Amino acid sequence: MNIDKDLERILRRVEKPARYIGGEVNIVRKDPAEVKTRMAFAFPDTYEIGMSYLGLQILYNILNRNPDIYCERVFAPAPDMEALMRGEENAAGRAQEPARKLYTLETFTPVSEMDLLGFTLQYEMSFTNILNMLDLSGIPLRAADRMAEDPDAESWPVVIAGGPCAYNPEPLADFIDVFLIGDGEELLERICLEYAAVKESYSKASSDPAKAGLKLTFLRRIAGIDGVYVPAFYAPEYNEDGTLGQMRVTDAAAPEKVRRAVISDLENVAFPEKNLVPLIETVHDRSVVETFRGCTRGCRFCQAGMIYRPVRERKKETILDLAMTQLANTGHDELSLLSLSTSDYSRFEDMAVELMGLCRQQNVALSLPSLRLDSFSFKVLDEIQGYRKSGLTFAPEAGSQRLRDVINKNITEKDIYDATRQAIELGWEHIKLYFMIGLPTETYEDLDGIAEIAKNIVDINYQIRGRKGGRFRVTVSVSNFVPKAHTPFQWEAQDTPADFIAKHDYLAQKLRIKGVTFHYHESNTSSLEAVFARGDRRICRALEEAWRLGCRFDAWTEHFDEKKWARAFEAAGIDPDFYTIRPRSTSEVLPWDHIDPLVRRGYLEEERQRAYGGETTPDCREGCTGCGMNRFTECFRGADRSSAIFKNAAAGE
Amino acid sequence: MAKYVIEFAKTGTICYTSHLDLMRIFKRVFKRTATPLAYSQGFNPHPKMGFAQPLSLGYWGMEEFFECETEGEWEPDQLLQRLAEGMPEGIELKRCLPADHLTRTLAAHTVAAEYMIAVPAGAPAEENRKGGAPGDAPAPGDAAVEQDPDADLSDPRSLWHSYMDLDEILVWKRQKKKKEPKLINIRPMIREMTFQLAEDGALYVDALLDGGSDSNLSPELIISSVCRRFGIAADRSEVSVMRKKLVFDKPLEELLS
Fold first, then answer.
1. Mean pLDDT across the stretch B121-138?
2. Residue range A45-49: average pLDDT?
3. How many CA atoms lie within 13 A of B119 on its CB side?
4. Which of A366, A487, A546, B231 has a beta carbon 3.0–4.6 Å from A551's, enabling a disulfide?
5. For B30, which residue in chain A has the nearest alpha carbon?
């Protein structure tokens, strides 16, 4: 593809220009004039990160299979590209119109000319990039400004957002026209087709005034579909103490509660076989097959464990076929499987053995993330990693059995030490441990437990390898607990940044052990993440303010600017503490209560009570724990119920 | 096992990929088209393939060369067709030659390369004719030639004399280990050069430069020294570079027979 001179000039000055040119292998080419709906799929981070995200490949494939839809891609320009797009002269005082508007990689069409613009919300710290991408497209930030009676205003794309962060949509509600909650495969395609239908009926109506209502007509038409949340149809009302009073429905087309969309049958939903293959190196550049969706373990801090229920599997044969077809169509030399817990796939052992054989034949490296470390996994890992063993990872999450019971992380110290012993005997020299601090009920004794585990692992190595211990290393990584919506811990107070810092310091002291490295996560980003994870609609002002002050790429430590955020909250009149360190009562109306994840709210409350009692809840393969999912869909569809994991689970492992 | 040399062109937006990117792109085409490459033996096997000369990011390449060793044997045309189907837009495979008789790599035989450099020079002369600000510390790539006040941008012949008659064309070059750039004379590495003025006012510089492991001159140094000599203030982003061809120490046919 050839591009104009102005863009050439920009690309010659920018770092990694191939981020902005498309042209990858398996890119979809269509004549835009021949389709009914054009959509830009937007990932609010750089190309290298967005292209590593499987959801993009899934939706790109599904939408583009439909001859009436053309799905193109757009990513957040890096700061150097942004400056050039805005025109250098205007870099200081921001230009009203960017010198070069944000464009899609498929056709270099300005994003503002699309019918739909869909953002994926994978992490809260990408939110300022969404505003920036709207602005770089020349699209007004606020949905209300795009809805004006002025017929010209109707030409703006409908701005959509979906993904895990859409489960608490309010911090973005002012900027987004439609949130899609839940599985996107069927829902997004349907939305594109509904839009085509509305547009068609309007193009038949000749007068301009009729056209003025296109967006509103479209929003009303889709508002009743499961998974569709149109924030303009809901008005929050607040109590005097600042808590939410109610979320008032303001349009007859909108339901009281928005039910999440669910794909019941994963086996028969389309999965990409001709993945886009980037021309440049990305974070993950490999073939990937999703083996199943959902997780049965019920860790109480984990949002994914709640919002992706129930477990739904693909057939083993389908997975193997998809893997081989993808490898053939992409030329990748690495294959990975995706799920929330690889070894929980019901036919895991058979599948792993077959995959290993196929990969060996084809010189393809197999990577199996998040394995449960039992003897089978060790056999598999030993074989696929050979003499080049990467680190072995455990995520005990908490340092004491008491706290692990509170969070329902069913891993014991014996599990860890047994696995460590095996690993060391098989030649692993690096053990990585993941913990979270700031969990509900945590005390400093629990932190001592973290150091103890690290120390004991080092000692086990000495026992096995002798006094010198070889090059053995233990890495302890600590992240800060961020309470998330739709989890049993959604009512909990987060630690203050000072608490986090004190705990980091304490751990740094305790972990001064030879052979142990300690990493921790910045506390300020964790607090900010917590504001957005449980924020209400008033947060939108702070977000916009922060963006105006220049905040971008907040997930990147080199770009995160704490002072600008503090100024933004102040200017917006918002106290972040209200959202982070304040405990909520279960009677409080939460900003996401009108979003129904299909897991009962009562279940979350019960789980919270059990957490306080230190009571664990077994894996639901042992027996239903009553989360409520099965009121709407079948659990374990496609899974082999005679599989050992069901039996082991039933026998209490 | 069989060896081949493939001639290809790299044009359009894909030129914004780097040499390393291109290596990966080619490697994957072989996988994708089920055309297994031969692998080196040893602890860390790698496929036997390579380019005659890396092409800088942003440059177009019209006659580039790639060599490889495949596991199976192919009719050269058949191999060309297979691989062509798997190539991304912008990589055009032009011909494939059997290369079993090639003993050293093509890279070892590459001695020079011809470039076409397009510099916009049509803007008002006075405004354009400023040299680098005096007193600035030299940066790698800066030219240290004197500006020629008599250079007439409308007269390519005078430009040729003004530039090529110089005994020394000094340019600051980054040194491998030391921090400070060093002055080097690039004149001996320039084999041929022509200047042409296009209708749109752009100055086209056609340059045949040393290019190989013994002596190598980057066209970037031609750009900076030409602009400096003639007082052209064009920004680097306005300059396009195309590599027209590679020159080997012997004709390719001879190398392959």
1. 52
2. 98
3. 26
4. A546
5. A331
Cβ neighbour number for residue A413 with a 10 Å cutoff? 16
Between A13, A23, A333, which is nearest B13 by CB? A23
The two beta strands, A158-162 and A116-120, are parallel
Number of domains chain A is built from: 2
Asked if A158 and A127 count as a contact pair (C-beta separation under 8 A), the reply is: no
111-170 in chain B: CB under 8 A from chain A: none
Taking residues A190-208, what's their average pLDDT? 84
Q: Does B21 touch chain A if contact means CB atoms closer than 8 Å? A: yes
Task: State the smallest CA–CA distance between residue B29 and chain A in angstroms.
Answer: 6
Over chain A, what is the mean pLDDT?
A: 92
Residue A271 lies inside a defined structural domain of this protein: no
Q: Is B101 part of the contact surface with chain A (CB cutoff 8 Å)? A: no
Q: Is the pLDDT assigned to residue A427 strictly greater than 60?
A: yes
Structural tokens at position A405? 């019971």
Q: Does A388 touch chain B (CB under 8 A)?
A: no
A230: its two tokens: 């149109």
Residue A82 lies in a domain: yes
Tokens 């699309």: give the residue: A114
Reply yes or no on whether the pLDDT at A92 is more than 60.
Answer: no
CB A39 within 8 A of CB A192: yes
What value, to the nearest 5°, has the Cα angle with vertex B68 and ends B66 and B71? 160
Element (H, E) at B117: strand B110-120
Across the interface, of A3, A280, A330, the residue whose CB is closest to B32 is A330
Largest CA distance in chain A: 87
Domain B2-100 coded CATH 3.30.70.580 = yes
User: What per-residue confidence (pLDDT) applies to A154?
Assistant: 55
The string of pLDDT tens digits covering residues A557-602 is 999 999 999 999 999 999 999 999 999 999 999 999 999 999 999 9
Q: CA-CA distance, A343 to A331, in Å (whole number)?
A: 27
How near does any CA of chain B get to the CA of A637, in Å? 34
H helices present in A517-592, as ranges: 523-533, 539-548, 562-571, 576-580
Task: State CA A62 to chain mean position distance.
Answer: 19
Q: Which residue of A has its CA nearest to B32?
A: A331
Q: Where exactly are the structural domains of chain B?
A: 2-100, 112-246
CA B34 to chain A, closest CA, distance in angstroms equals: 8
Among B81, B107, B78, smallest CA distance to B92 is for B81
In B129-218, alpha helices (H): 156-164
Whether residue A250 contacts residue A304, with contact meaning beta carbons closer than 8 Å, is answered with no
DSSP-based three-state secondary structure for A638: coil
Q: Where among A561, A584, A607 does a domain terminate? A: A584
Query: Closest by alpha carbon to A452, among A463, A440, A464, A444?
Result: A444
A2–B16 C-beta distance less than 8 A = no
Q: Which of B16, B44, B117, B239 to mutate to test the interface with A (most CBs of A within 10 A)?
A: B16
Chain A stretch 304-333, residues whose beta carbon is closer than 8 A to a beta carbon of chain B: 327-333
Where residue A279 falls among pLDDT bands split at 50, 70, 90? Answer: very high
Tokens of A263: 């794909």
Cβ B16–A331 below 8 Å, yes or no?
A: no
Task: Give the range among A199-203, A334-338, A520-524 with minimum mean pLDDT.
Answer: A199-203
Domain containing A499 equals: 389-538+574-584
DSSP secondary structure letter of residue B143:
B
